[in-house]
């Protein structure tokens, strides 16, 4: 998360939650848009009167249903859903054609077997899953809660609760519906809830009951009217008001508790139901994220189209041949055994037509019969195989202990099974900064107060007291959960009795840190603290909040003697150096992405009213009081000096990578307060455009503020980030950082994580208008000679460079030669990268682009996107600062929509969700900001450094495996079909099959499927150590080495040859023998299974025991099945295998077919590896020889990654 010092959840745009279609506006600046209904469209809830509330029967009950089926609807609905898959419709059409008498190529039952088998297995799986959903729904709906009935609270089942009823929930219980709080066991009306079941966040959230309802709770006289917005998915906002005892009370997000959350730290809470059942926000958000589609699968569909063309051509050839054959032998059709037109026998049928419908219809039937015979040319089973392989790959990725994070106790998660292979082709990584590259564990380091810098640790003479975990000032002691470095000089200033401006500014500075937030203090009682300087007893205090920044600031204020000890909806209590100070909270303007600041209006015990504000420097300095000519000269110089000093301190903090905030405040006059209070009450009770009205109201008091100071918070880099980024860069992956931090902070973090290097030339784009942005982009392109490059079509020189691998003989390479030639490969790849970046002029060093969110407002909304694209893709590094969530998604879409490159987005918080969903691959970090990013991502992990292993190892393996899997399945089915095709051409185009029906069905289902799946899950071309040691090997995915159109055509050519050998070698061998057709078919069945398995064995890179069992076991299983089938007397192939097995010719024939068919493939592989080895083959050779160039090793131990 990137917004400094404010709750992360408040920044999230409503768009991702609403699930609306993305359009052009998704790339726009994140303007705050309200979706609140008009007054006329609001929902009316009569408290404790459910009958009147639902008198129109428009509200749903509280019963939920997540199941899809009932006993009656299961069969038709499940079949309807299954037949949405085109593959199943293809199966159904083939089976239906085979039921027609003229087209009955296979037995009618046999033809239905594959389809029925798939439908039955899928139905069983779906039925079991839905039964579990029914069981879960039944358990959930029958839970009980206390509902106010007959003047007392009585148990009632959840499913019978209705809108308007008053419900009482006890500690640690789950909330049954969405309720507006009326009161809690705490006298102040505060409640703590855990939203883990809703948004995945484990930290406690604070909700309040309005004081007006809390004081009347004991009387148990529940009445009133709530007017609120209609049900919607936005779990971070709620707009409503309550008419209670003649008052109109505003209701907001802090007054509602949602279904699925748990009540914590209070004994009980009472609320009125506003949304129930399917209308609750939890149920409205229960829809899963849209699934993404693999890029390789898209390519696969292109090749499937080519196979469909081949299928059509083969069927057309057979049909045309049939017509010509019938025309040529027309005079013989009455006597031919297979094509006789009339009956031979005497009787009533004598001279009638027998299975003959004329040449035209026979041609048509022959075409359809051919489709049935050649049906597996379209590899329908490939889709099922790919799903099983991806499932197995995910199992091993999840079980990889090197991607387990001990700190967060989180392991790797695969939340999407459709895009495993895309991990091996990533070209762009878009990363959040805070919580993704950094730990998101904030530590207060520096403070600028009244123009003076505090917190420096310069050496022995510094005024810092490090490691303080207790608020040491005053009579009362507070033990903090975290340790804070305290500047003793600042402590001394706070304890001066002087009432000078510096002392007052310091006091108000820390008072703002303690008061201007949404953090909740939790007291834990006394605890011992052994230190000679302090007392032995201290009361432990912890802070719960939605933002780590706020928690760090409040803890820092406590360390300096300003301890927040109590918070309610109406007041806060701050222990100021041992004296409790009660402050009435008159209004709170929470952070939003437009204002980028937060303010609180408080009344002091002396009745004075102040507004305290903190926010980003970009939004704060514009509302700081400016000097005028009427201002006293000395005072004016003082203000200007303080402002300049603070700005310099902010620049210094940012250059050190610290997150910065500016703190300010002012006293409100009676007139200012009265005007603000009137506007605030109207805005906070409005149901229409409440957020806009509140922003306008805040502008009344957020002006002419007194600058109090600034803060610097440290967010350390995660372990292994610099090494991971360097490895990704060597792998040809560009890493872009999209952050909400200010520019100097982002640049500092970029340098510390080695994203930026001192040799890079930085291009800064900070435009304040469309014309200025256009000028900056044009000037940068002109200065560095950047021209428009068509990234969808590589230039010829780049293609040549991509193929410029070193020439290495597999048996004659020393480690020195190997080292030199890998360096040559690296140089070639560097040139490729240089050209891909579009740099056409001479540039002294690589480029880095730094652009801010304000510039992106004009660029992404105007016609400057192409200019930005040309410049950004010409830079090795891009850092976007001060960007809003939708701008992050816009940057991703900028690359995704203009190139064919694969994009990956990684983040940890709610403001990264839109970016993660926009990218081809989304990765969520299980961090401090909750689990919104994880829930929206395709994959999830605990640390950024694991991305290195995910892409370079698992990504490479998965892409290599799936690419080979697809090509092999095309080959396996095509060689079988072509063998049948040659047989039909040799049998007068009669669509007669020499193979039994069951052999044809079992070929893809049983005989050859298991080895494919095992190899797709377990095969490894290189070890993980080699892949991590040589990141450049990842570039094979960029070059599509494992799957491309050229490989497809080579595979088809090889398939054509193998099918000819498979068919004609036995035919030529047995040409003068008396062997029958079924014996020949039995030979072909065994031969094709042996051939495809040996073909697979030639390509397996890593043999393990299960690979041997699957590969050779499938051949044994094929023999076993054939023995069983040939032992059944009713089958025409009865006992054929027993006769064949006795013949030596049979066994020699299988061996001869295998050798002749695979010999060209073997020779081509040998020649290619000797003369044109790929970098993968070079690395395999080095891996086998154990001779690796030491200087190419990465600085980090690879195994620890």
Automatic annotation (TrEMBL):
Species annotation: Spirodela intermedia
* Gene3D superfamilies assigned to the protein according to its UniProt record, in alphabetical order: Calcium-transporting ATPase, cytoplasmic domain N (3.40.1110.10), Calcium-transporting ATPase, cytoplasmic transduction domain A (2.70.150.10), HAD superfamily/HAD-like (3.40.50.1000)
Q: Which cofactor does it need?
A: Mg(2+)
Q: What is its EC number?
A: 7.6.2.1
Protein name, per record: Phospholipid-transporting ATPase
Where along this sequence does the record place binding of ATP?
432-434, 550, 591, 614, 659, 739-741, 882, 888, 911-912
Indicate the family of this protein.
Belongs to the cation transport ATPase (P-type) (TC 3.A.3) family. Type IV subfamily.
Chain ranges of the P-type ATPase C-terminal domain = 934-1174
- Keyword set for this entry? ATP-binding, Magnesium, Membrane, Metal-binding, Nucleotide-binding, Translocase, Transmembrane, Transmembrane helix
Which molecular function term from Gene Ontology is one that the record holds?
A: ATP hydrolysis activity
Q: Which SUPFAM superfamilies match?
A: Calcium ATPase, transduction domain A, Calcium ATPase, transmembrane domain M, HAD-like, Metal cation-transporting ATPase, ATP-binding domain N
């Amino acid at each position: 998360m990137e917004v400094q010092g404010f709750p992360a959840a408040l920044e999230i745009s409503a768009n991702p939650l609403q699930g609306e279609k993305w359009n052009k506006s998704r790339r726009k600046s994140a303007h705050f848009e309200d979706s609140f209904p008009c007054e006329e469209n609001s929902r009316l809830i009569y408290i404790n009167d459910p009958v009147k509330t639902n008198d129109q029967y428009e509200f749903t009950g509280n019963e939920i249903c997540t199941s899809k089926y009932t006993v009656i609807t299961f069969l038709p609905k499940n079949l309807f859903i299954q037949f949405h898959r085109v593959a199943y419709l293809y199966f159904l059409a083939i089976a239906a054609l085979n039921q027609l008498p003229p087209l009955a190529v296979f037995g009618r039952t046999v033809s239905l077997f594959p389809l029925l088998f798939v439908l039955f297995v899928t139905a069983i799986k779906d039925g079991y899953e839905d039964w579990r959903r029914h069981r879960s729904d039944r358990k959930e709906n029958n839970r009980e809660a206390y509902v106010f009935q007959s003047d007392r609270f009585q148990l009632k089942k959840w499913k019978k609760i209705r809108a308007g009823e008053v419900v009482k929930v006890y500690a640690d219980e789950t909330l049954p519906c969405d309720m507006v709080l009326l009161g809690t066991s705490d006298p102040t009306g505060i409640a703590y809830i855990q939203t883990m079941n809703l948004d995945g966040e484990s930290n406690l959230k604070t909700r309040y009951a309005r004081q007006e309802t809390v004081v009347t709770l004991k009387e148990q006289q529940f009445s009133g009217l709530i007017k609120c917005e209609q049900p919607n998915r936005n779990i971070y906002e709620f707009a409503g008001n309550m008419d209670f005892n003649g008052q109109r009370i505003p209701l907001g997000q802090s007054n509602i508790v949602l279904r699925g959350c748990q009540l914590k730290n209070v004994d009980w809470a009472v609320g009125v139901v506003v949304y129930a059942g399917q209308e609750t926000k939890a149920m409205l958000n229960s829809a899963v994220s849209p699934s993404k589609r693999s890029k390789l699968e898209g390519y696969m569909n292109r090749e499937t189209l080519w196979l469909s063309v081949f299928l059509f051509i083969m069927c057309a050839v057979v049909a045309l041949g049939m017509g010509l054959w019938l025309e040529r032998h027309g005079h013989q059709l009455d006597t031919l055994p297979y094509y006789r037109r009339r009956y031979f026998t005497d009787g009533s049928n004598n001279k009638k037509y027998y299975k003959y419908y004329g040449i035209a219809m026979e041609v048509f039937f022959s075409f359809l019969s051919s489709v049935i015979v050649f049906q597996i040319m379209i590899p329908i089973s490939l889709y099922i195989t790919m799903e099983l392989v991806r499932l197995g790959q995910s199992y091993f990725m999840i079980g990889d202990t090197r991607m387990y994070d001990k700190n967060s106790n989180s392991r790797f998660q695969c939340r999407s099974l459709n895009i495993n292979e895309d991990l091996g082709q990533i070209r762009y990584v878009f990363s959040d900064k805070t919580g993704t590259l950094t730990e998101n564990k904030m530590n207060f380091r520096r403070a600028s107060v009244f123009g003076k810098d505090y917190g420096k640790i310069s050496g022995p003479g510094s005024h810092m007291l490090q490691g303080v975990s207790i608020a040491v000032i005053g009579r009362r002691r507070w033990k903090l959960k975290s340790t804070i470095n305290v500047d003793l000089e600042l402590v001394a200033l706070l304890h001066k009795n002087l009432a000078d401006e510096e002392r007052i500014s310091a006091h108000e500075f820390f008072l703002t840190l303690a008061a201007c937030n949404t953090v909740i203090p939790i007291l834990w009682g006394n605890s011992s603290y052994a230190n000679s300087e302090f007392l032995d007893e201290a009361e432990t205090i912890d802070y719960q909040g939605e933002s780590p920044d706020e928690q760090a600031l409040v803890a820092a204020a406590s360390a300096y003697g300003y301890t927040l000890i109590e918070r309610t909806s109406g007041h806060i209590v701050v222990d100021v150096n041992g004296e409790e100070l009660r402050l009435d909270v008159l209004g709170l303007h929470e952070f939003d992405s437009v204002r980028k600041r937060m303010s609180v209006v408080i009344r002091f015990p002396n009745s004075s009213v102040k507004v305290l504000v903190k926010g980003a420097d970009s939004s704060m300095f514009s509302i700081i009081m400016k000097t005028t000519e009427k201002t006293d000269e000395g005072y004016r110089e003082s203000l200007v000096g303080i402002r300049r000093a603070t700005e310099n301190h902010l620049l210094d903090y940012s250059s050190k990578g610290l997150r910065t905030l500016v703190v300010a405040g002012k006293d409100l006059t009676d007139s200012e307060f009265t005007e603000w209070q009137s506007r605030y009450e109207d805005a906070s009770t409005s149901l229409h455009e409440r957020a806009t009205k509140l922003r306008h109201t805040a502008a009344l008091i957020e002006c002419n503020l007194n600058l109090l100071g600034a803060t610097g918070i440290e967010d350390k880099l995660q372990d292994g980030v610099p090494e991971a980024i360097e490895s990704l860069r060597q792998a040809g992956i560009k890493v872009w950082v999209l952050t909400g931090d200010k520019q100097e902070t982002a640049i500092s973090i970029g340098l510390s994580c080695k994203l930026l290097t001192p040799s890079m030339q930085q291009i800064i784009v900070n435009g304040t208008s469309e014309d200025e942005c256009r000028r900056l982009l044009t000037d940068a392109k002109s200065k560095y000679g950047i021209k428009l490059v068509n990234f969808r079509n590589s230039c010829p020189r780049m293609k040549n460079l991509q193929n410029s691998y070193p020439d290495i003989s597999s048996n004659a390479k020393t480690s020195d030669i190997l080292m030199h030639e890998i360096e040559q490969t690296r140089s070639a790849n560097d040139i490729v990268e240089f050209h891909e970046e579009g740099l056409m002029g001479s540039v002294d060093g690589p480029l880095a682009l730094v652009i801010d969110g304000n510039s992106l407002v004009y660029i992404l909304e105007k016609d400057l996107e192409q200019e930005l694209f040309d410049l950004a893709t010409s830079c090795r590094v891009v850092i976007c600062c001060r960007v809003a969530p939708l701008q992050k998604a816009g940057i991703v879409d900028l690359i995704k929509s203009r190139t064919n490159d694969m994009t990956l987005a990684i983040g940890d918080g709610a403001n990264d969700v839109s970016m993660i969903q926009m990218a081809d691959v989304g990765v969520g970090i299980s961090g401090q900001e909750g689990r919104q990013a994880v829930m929206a991502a395709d994959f999830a992990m605990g640390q950024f450094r694991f991305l290195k292993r995910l892409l370079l190892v698992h990504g490479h393996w998965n892409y290599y495996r799936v690419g080979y899997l697809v090509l092999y399945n095309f080959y396996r089915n095509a060689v079988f079909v072509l063998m049948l095709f040659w047989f039909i051409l040799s049998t007068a185009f009669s669509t007669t099959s020499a193979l039994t029906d069951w052999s044809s069905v079992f070929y893809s289902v049983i005989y050859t499927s298991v080895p494919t799946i095992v190899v797709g899950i377990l095969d490894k071309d290189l070890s993980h150590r080699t892949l991590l040691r040589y990141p450049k090997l990842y570039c094979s995915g960029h070059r599509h080495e494992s799957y491309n159109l050229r490989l497809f055509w080579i595979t088809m050519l090889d398939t054509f040859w193998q099918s000819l050998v498979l068919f004609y070698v036995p035919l030529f061998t047995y040409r003068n023998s008396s062997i029958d057709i079924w014996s020949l078919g039995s030979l072909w069945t065994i031969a094709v299974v042996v051939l495809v398995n040996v073909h697979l064995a030639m390509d397996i890179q890593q043999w393990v025991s299960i690979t041997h069992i699957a590969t050779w076991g499938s051949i044994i299983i094929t023999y076993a099945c054939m023995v069983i089938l040939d032992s059944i007397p009713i089958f025409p192939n009865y006992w054929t295998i027993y006769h064949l097995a006795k013949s030596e010719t049979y066994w020699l024939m299988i061996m001869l077919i295998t050798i002749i068919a695979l010999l060209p493939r073997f020779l081509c592989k040998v020649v290619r590896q000797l003369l044109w080895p790929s970098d993968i083959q070079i690395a395999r050779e080095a891996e086998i020889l154990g001779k690796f160039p030491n200087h190419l090793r990465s600085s980090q131990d690879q195994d620890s990654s």
